[in-house]
Write a structure and sequence with these properties.
Layout: E1 2-11, E2 14-24, E3 29-33, H1 40-48, E4 55-64, E5 67-68, H2 74-80, E6 85-88, H3 92-95, H4 102-113, H5 118-131, H6 137-141, H7 150-162, E7 168-172, H8 180-197, E8 200-205, H9 208-214, E9 217-222, E10 225-231, H10 232-238, H11 242-248
Helix pairs in contact: 4-5, 5-7, 7-8
Length: 261
């Protein structure tokens, strides 16, 4: 479904990502793991065509269903964003407009991408919020972001991202600002979406425990390079890389179990 072929990203003379290669199948969950500054977020920004500042892809190609994303115009990419590729941000409450209700933003998002009426968009929004196991969704639609908890805003962000049923979901540290209990709930809901719609997920996280819990493939990054990759079993139980093993040593528990050993 998605192939990143030898992708290098530079910010002026600084290399942020060097010869990065990976492939993601339909319905596969891939986690990018590593400390801050390792290049994880650069990967998903490169896929979206939204590198910050003066960031540029100087080598390689990114293919979605054999279509080069790097050869598309900005107008063509806008059609892909949301409908084919969607994004969950680290803090959805910071992305949502604070002076507009959830309902008005959700409805506008749907109607921007699809030719549907306001009533149908409202109904779709309600259905997606209910899928996130939120209670009293009619009230949530009438609420402002600041009236919701961080976990509720994150569920709203996931609902909006999934409302157009994209084939690929990019998640940038979607649980890092949440307490452990809410983290577990959000991760399980992302996995539920993955199973229901066969949506491919690229998950950026510094938490190898979260990656181990939900991923089919784990890519460990450091200084803009891949230092190790493999399936859950290979990374958790057979890693010989010192950096990976230090990350493994910091894994927290989830649901009372430690997802190593």
């Amino acid at each position: 479904m998605l192939k990143m072929q030898d992708v290098t990203v530079r910010y002026d003379d600084k290399i942020a990502l060097e010869h990065f290669c990976c492939s993601i199948k339909q319905g596969e969950i891939v986690s990018l793991v590593g400390e801050s500054g390792s290049g994880k977020t650069t990967v998903i920004r490169a896929i979206l065509g939204l590198l910050s500042g003066n960031g540029k892809i100087t080598e390689g190609d990114i293919l979605l269903e054999e279509n080069s994303l790097l050869k598309m115009t900005e107008k063509e990419m806008q059609k892909f964003r949301g409908k084919r590729i969607a994004m969950i941000f680290q803090d959805s409450s910071a992305v949502l407009n604070p002076i507009r209700t959830i309902g008005s933003q959700f409805v506008e998002y749907l109607r921007y991408h699809e030719k549907i009426g306001e009533k149908e968009a409202w109904k779709r929004s309600i259905e997606m919020l209910e899928m996130m196991h939120l209670a009293d969704v009619e009230n949530i639609m009438k609420s402002y972001p600041f009236q919701l908890s961080g976990g509720m805003c994150q569920r709203v962000g996931i609902a909006m991202a999934m409302s157009l049923r994209p084939m690929l979901l990019l998640a940038d540290e979607p649980t890092s600002a949440l307490d452990v209990t809410t983290q577990s709930q959000i991760v399980k809901q992302m996995m539920e979406i993955n199973r229901k719609y066969q949506t491919g997920i690229v998950m950026v996280t510094h938490n190898l425990g979260v990656a181990a819990y939900m991923s089919d493939k784990i890519i460990v990054m450091r200084d803009g390079k891949i230092i190790e990759e493999g399936n859950r079993e290979q990374i958790l139980h057979h890693s010989v890389n010192e950096y990976t093993r230090s990350l493994l040593g910091a894994i927290p528990t989830m649901d009372g179990e430690r997802y190593v050993g």
